[in-house]
Amino acid sequence: MPKRTRAGALTALAGAALAVGTALAAPAAAAPRPPGFLAAADLPPQPGTSWTAGKVTAGVPEVVEQDTCLSMALGGGQDSWYREFRTDLDTGARQVSVELPGVRAAKGRFARLNQDIRSCPGRIERADPETEATLRDEGTLPAGDGAHVYALHTVTSWGASDIRLLSVGRDGRTVTVVDWGRLGGFADAPVKAFRKTTTTAVHKLH
Fold this sequence. Notes:
Elements lengths: L2 H22 L27 E2 L3 E2 L3 H4 L13 E8 L5 E8 L3 H16 L1 H8 L3 E11 L5 E10 L4 E11 L2 E10 L7 H13 L3
Antiparallel strand pairs: 1-3, 2-3, 3-4, 4-8, 5-6, 6-7, 7-8
């Protein structure tokens, strides 16, 4: 075969192969779209400062993976996202949302999170005998397919005192957890405002 003809044939074959490969290649799977998240203005007002919201980020933050109350139910293996909130003072918050394969799985995760939060004080005290933990059940909310609010107070033998508000909500196959905390005790917890925050968080999951 003449050199010019041979080169032209090879070029044509390469082009055909590229066209076939392009036609056979499956389209890349689109990344899962995160559910709606709280905005800074949705958090309980904090006198003397304002809330700043971080970006909605895929995954679960390391601090949650190591959390005594939440780590067992919010581990990897599912589509999850989180958003951090901070103030200039000692108050911070976080929202973590998980999208399960179906409603049944979401119901199970919702129940597991409630169970883990209720049993959390005992695990805290077993892990650190110098810490006393007390949980208050702040009741349910008629938001989405259900929501539950808790207040957790921990105090150490050397006097450190922290208050934490936790809520779990579900809408369809998505479960969300809102976690608020600061130095102080039960009297420092804005439960009424946090219940409103939780309701907003569940409604925004759509």
